[in-house]
Amino acid sequence: MHLGKVIYKRERFEIIDCSSCGFIHLNPIPREDELKKFYEMQYYQEKRDKIGVPEKIIREKPWYEKVVWKDMLDAFNAKIKGLQGHPKSLLDIGCGNGYFLKYMQENGWEVIGIEPSLTACEYARSLNVKVYNMTIEEFKTEFKKQRFFDAINLSYVLEHSSNPKEVLEICRDILKNNGVMCVAVPNDFNSLQLQVNKLVSKPSWWIAIPDHINYFNFKTLERLLNSVGFEILLRTTSFPMELFLLMGDDYVENDEVGSMCHQKRMNFELALPKNIRRKLYQKLASLGLGRECIVYAKPASNNCFPKKLL
User: Fold this and answer.
1) What distance, in Å, lies between the first and last C-alpha atoms of the chain?
2) Position 25 in a domain
3) CB-based contacts of 118: which residues, under 8 Å, 6+ apart?
4) Based on the structure, what is the number of domains in the chain?
5) What is the pLDDT of residues 247-297, one digit of tens each?
6) Which DSSP string corresponds to the chain?
7) pTM value?
8) d(CA 96, CA 119)
9) I want to staple 17 with a disulfide (CB 3.0 to 4.6 A). Which of 4, 218, 246, 303 is the partner?
10) Is-contact 188 206, C-beta < 8 A?
11) Is residue 17 situated within a structural domain?
């Protein structure tokens, strides 16, 4: 039973601060067959061009390599111990076009991706990385043997999942005891977003029904991770894009302004020395600010959840 304060309502759906789940989510939660139909008939069709021909990622590759992917590579290398001289293994869940996998592979990692979009999966395979066209639940069913990974990337997945706890439990079971997982979700209903709503009467533009089922902040995400046996190692974030709205650059439903703001954000991050940028974003995360919740976690040392065979 999902009960809690209703904080948003649209048509037959409510968004509630659920007391039983411990985080904000859609209510009722769409059925699996409804979600499958939505993604097959609408979501992936609308995004087909962006998924199949990732020109934006190619154009912004220097920024990804020097900022986004480099931060993840350095964090994984720093947090995973005892693997000197041996290649590390990465599972990227929802790997999209596969460019992060390719980057990690070029940096000496053994990589595998999971991607439910066939269009994106086929593109990723063209980069010569191993990608399975399936969900994490299907991956668990398909592989009936042990497959432990040193690292898991779970970026922009949990907000789409009808059962995020189950997803994290699967990740826990296929991650090595000394492995590390990176979880990234939108930092929604954060104080800057709410301030924009209050001051400039913007709608709740971050709400996406029905594809965004869950809405996390650092507190609720970390609570969920703890509940399935993970220990938090590092929390960080990305540039708080809401600052542009507060400065008068209204990018909501305006792609031209949005592109300008994103370019300024990239310029800012490329200009800052990485140690300053990383400290800044970790401080913002400690205040609950930033566009994303990015959390690195490992299986807790007192984890009472034994490894399982897949």
Assistant:
1) 30
2) no
3) 133
4) 1
5) 999 999 899 999 999 999 999 999 999 999 999 999 999 999 999 999 999
6) ---EEEEEEETTEEEEEETTTSSEEEESPPPHHHHHHHIIIIIHHHTHHHHHS-HHHHHTHHHIIIIIHHHHHHHHHHH--S-TTS--EEEEET-TTSHHHHHHHHTT-EEEEE-S-HHHHHHHHTTT-EEESS-HHHHHHH--S---EEEEEEES-GGG-S-HHHHHHHHHHHEEEEEEEEEEEEBTT-HHHHHHHHHH----TT--TTT--EEB-HHHHHHHHHHTTEEEEEEE----THHHHHTT---TT-HHHHHHHHHHHHHHHHHS-HHHHHHHHHHHHHTT-SSEEEEEEEE-TT--S-----
7) 0.91
8) 9
9) 4
10) yes
11) no
What's the CA dihedral at 191, 230, 105, 132 to 10 degrees?
A: -90
Q: Answer whether residue 12 is part of any domain.
A: no
| Residue 45 belongs to domain with CATH number | 3.40.50.150
Query: Tokens for 255?
Result: 């792609």
- Per residue in 131-187, pLDDT (tens digit) is 999 989 889 888 765 568 999 999 999 999 999 999 999 999 999 989 999 999 999
